[in-house]
Amino acid sequence: MTPNMSYKRQKTILIILFLLVPLVSLSVFAIYPAGYLVYLSFMNWDGLSPEKTWAGLDNFREVFASPDIFSSFRHNLVYLGWGFLQNAIGLFFALLLNSRLRGRNVYRVILFMPFIMNGVAVAYMFNYVFNSEYGSLNTLLRAAGLDSLAISWFGSPGAVNHVLAFITLWKFMGLNMVIYLAALQSVPSEMLEAAHIDGATRWQTITRVILPNMIRVIELNLFLTIIGTLEIFDLPFVLTKGGPLGASDTFLTITMNNAFKFNNFGLASAMSIVLIVMVMIVIGVQRLVFRRWAD
């Protein structure tokens, strides 16, 4: 910059230079891929051919007309239900370990450790727990004389999604607990002391003082849970490959299969757009609910 340049111009140039890298990165890695995804959703393309043919809304019609595709959201709803339970348990342990419990730091580390473990390693570990022949759970049930409960956990259409969702709960509950712990420690101590002086019970303090001050954190955790359950992929892909007979297929595993197994990138792109819209709708409903609760 020349010495004769005005301060205002120097400031403008500096702002542009500082914004240039993030804006270019955003354009290259976010805006362009998103726009190309929308473009592909209206095309028929196998992912290899240089030519793409116009499909119009046919890909979107197939998404909503195919019972195997759109009905897979029912499997995601199982994860969503367990996700709400995951948040409740995380909040419970956060309230418990925020007290003057002896050894609470050790318990915090133990509960948080599953989150830092690799997802594929967790999948293989639980494969040995729920294996129908040599799994530790069925071995324990048979040893206790409960042979009727020793089922094929990954081979039962009614149980497989609940088993996979339980593994998700085990892995991510510690993260929810840590986030809630941070929120609890930010609740003003004066409000807690005032509630104690007024004779509020522990339950009244939690429901009338603590939870209202954690509303934004609870909303954040539920946001992460909803996103995670709608985009679940790794566990069913590694453990069941969508089986038995598609009973554990999620919307994202079907999307990946259409793209990389059946080479139908147009349909997979349309499914991705539908998933994005579904996430936006669910998050919008969540915001309305929490806005009314906050009011």
Automatic annotation (TrEMBL):
Transmembrane segments: 12-39, 77-97, 109-130, 150-170, 220-239, 265-285
Keyword Transferase part of the UniProt annotation: no
Domain of life where this protein originates: Bacteria
InterPro entries the UniProt entry points to: ABC_transporter_permease, MetI-like, MetI-like_sf
Domain ABC transmembrane type-1: 72-286
Pfam family, one: BPD_transp_1
Membrane topology: Multi-pass membrane protein
Record's keyword annotation contains Transferase: no
Localization of this protein: Cell membrane
Keywords of this entry: Cell membrane, Membrane, Transmembrane, Transmembrane helix, Transport
Stored CDD domains: TM_PBP2
Entry's family note: Belongs to the binding-protein-dependent transport system permease family.
Protein name, UniProt field: Carbohydrate ABC transporter permease
Organism: Cohnella soli
Organism taxonomic ancestry: Bacteria, Bacillati, Bacillota, Bacilli, Bacillales
